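Worked Example 4.2. Consider the chain below.
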Amino acid sequence: MQDKDFALLAKVLPHMFARWRHAEDFEILAGLPDGEVRIDALTGTAGHALAGPIPLRIAAELKAGLDDQLARKGIAKADLPEAGLTVTVDTSAVKTDRTRIVHFDFRIRSRIRTVDKVFEASQDEEHVWHERGGT
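Applying the procedure from the previous section yields the following structure tokens:
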């Protein structure tokens, strides 16, 4: 991959998270305290700063997307020591009845590290609503 490809990929990863609307992932996040979630796009794993590992489906989706791009460009995963997101989750901006609905603001930062360079990007996604329990 060229530097421009890695820079673009660093921008795409936050965008993928920002557009994700999987109810089960939102339920997991709604049940956790506000804070940082780290997603490793190389392994497809996620963890919360206080709660530890969490089973977010978006982590597997980010891994699949990254794997596809690396395969298309002929890049070995060994050439990419780090690729992932840090997502700051904030539910405090709009007070809601959390048993029925949760309001999220996300601050999403990506970081991709090759053997000799680092590529970073960020995106904010505000006013994401999740209706709980399907009601």
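The first strand starts at residue 35 and ends at 40. The CA atoms of residues 33 and 123 lie 21 Å apart. Compare this with Example 4.1 before moving on.
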